[in-house]
């Protein structure tokens, strides 16, 4: 059960009283997630999600509030946080920072179809188009600047072959990105796996869990998506899902020449980013709670495929 701080009904009732959201009918802990405590809250007027932040840098939470407010104002399918009667969204509950969100419709797609890939590509293209003007700033915590020092922490746990693979890749990325062309920047989700989306059939109900959100290369965000949404269990790219997602994305935000050039390398770097982060959780910094870590091997497999097979051709942008 991923509720690390239980709440009583009276605590939730007192919290809700600050908002114009109705009276408590029910509060249910959500058995999902790895870092925060989440509750489904039902009032006599609406369905809500209450999140208590258990880990992370709490001083960064205003960035996430501002980003979600901004995207919500631009009619993106995100859960814009509720603000209380004084216009404040971020509060404290049970000694933890807390936010209240509308509950968006749908469920996570386990095996996304082509229509779902198009819907996600369209929404991400729209998001990246408007996020370039977002005034907030939070450096990408998992980019090349993170890879350089952090990969040394896991080398001792790897086979000689994997040590060489990781060290060689980081050196290649450093040579490519450090002196390469500047890529378009903006606010990004930073972790847009399929379990951070909600679908009702083929319709995208929402993009959720922006707590890896930051500002950085838009292409970084897109590569994370492709390495999850358009990749099979063997690590190979699935041409139909790849084409559907990227064509829909580019109908909203065509990739620039520098991005098209960097695309195969960005797919490799984001695959290594998740291989490394999962290795760190297994060997170096296990979760504070009794949760099963994700298998690092899945992204080692993706990385090997990207090195051996490269990227599929990018579809051309269509007006």
TrEMBL record:
NCBIfam families: PRK05231.1 (NF003558), thrB_alt (TIGR00938). Pathway: Amino-acid biosynthesis; L-threonine biosynthesis; L-threonine from L-aspartate: step 4/5. Keywords: Amino-acid biosynthesis, ATP-binding, Kinase, Nucleotide-binding, Threonine biosynthesis, Transferase. One of its GO terms (biological process) is threonine biosynthetic process. It is an enzyme of class 2 (transferase). It catalyses: L-homoserine + ATP = O-phospho-L-homoserine + ADP + H(+). Its EC number is 2.7.1.39. The keyword Amino-acid biosynthesis applies. This is Homoserine kinase. Belongs to the pseudomonas-type ThrB family. The gene is thrB. Pfam families: APH (PF01636). Residues 28-255 form the Aminoglycoside phosphotransferase domain. It comes from Halomonas beimenensis. GO terms for molecular function: ATP binding; homoserine kinase activity.
């Amino acid at each position: 059960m991923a509720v690390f701080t239980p709440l009583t009904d009276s605590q939730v009732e007192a919290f809700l009283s600050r908002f114009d959201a109705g009276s408590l009918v029910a509060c249910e802990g959500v058995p999902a997630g790895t870092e925060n405590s989440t509750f489904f809250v039902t009032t006599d007027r609406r369905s809500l999600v209450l999140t208590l932040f258990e880990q992370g840098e709490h001083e960064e939470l205003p960035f996430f509030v501002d980003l979600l407010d901004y995207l919500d104002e631009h009619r993106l399918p995100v859960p814009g946080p509720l603000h209380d009667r004084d216009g404040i969204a971020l509060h404290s509950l049970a000694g933890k920072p807390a936010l209240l969100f509308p509950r968006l419709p749908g469920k996570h797609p386990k095996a996304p179809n082509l229509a779902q890939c198009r819907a996600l590509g369209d929404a991400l293209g729209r998001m990246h188009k408007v996020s370039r003007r977002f005034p907030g700033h939070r450096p990408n915590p998992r980019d090349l600047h993170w890879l350089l020092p952090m990969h040394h922490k896991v080398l001792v746990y790897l086979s000689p072959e994997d040590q060489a693979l990781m060290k060689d890749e980081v050196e290649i990325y450093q040579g490519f990105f450090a002196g390469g062309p500047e890529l378009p920047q903006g606010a990004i989700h930073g972790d847009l796996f399929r379990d951070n989306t909600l679908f009702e059939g083929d319709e995208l109900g929402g993009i959720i869990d922006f707590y890896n959100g930051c500002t950085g290369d838009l292409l970084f965000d897109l590569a994370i998506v492709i390495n999850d949404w358009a990749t099979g269990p063997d690590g190979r790219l699935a041409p139909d899902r790849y084409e559907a997602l990227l064509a829909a994305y580019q109908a909203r935000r065509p990739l620039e020449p520098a991005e098209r050039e960097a695309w195969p390398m960005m797919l490799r770097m984001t695959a290594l980013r998740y291989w490394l982060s999962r290795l760190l959780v297994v060997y170096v910094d296990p979760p504070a709670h009794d949760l099963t870590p994700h298998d690092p091997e899945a992204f080692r497999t993706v990385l090997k495929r990207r090195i051996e097979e490269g990227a599929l051709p990018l579809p051309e942008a269509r007006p």
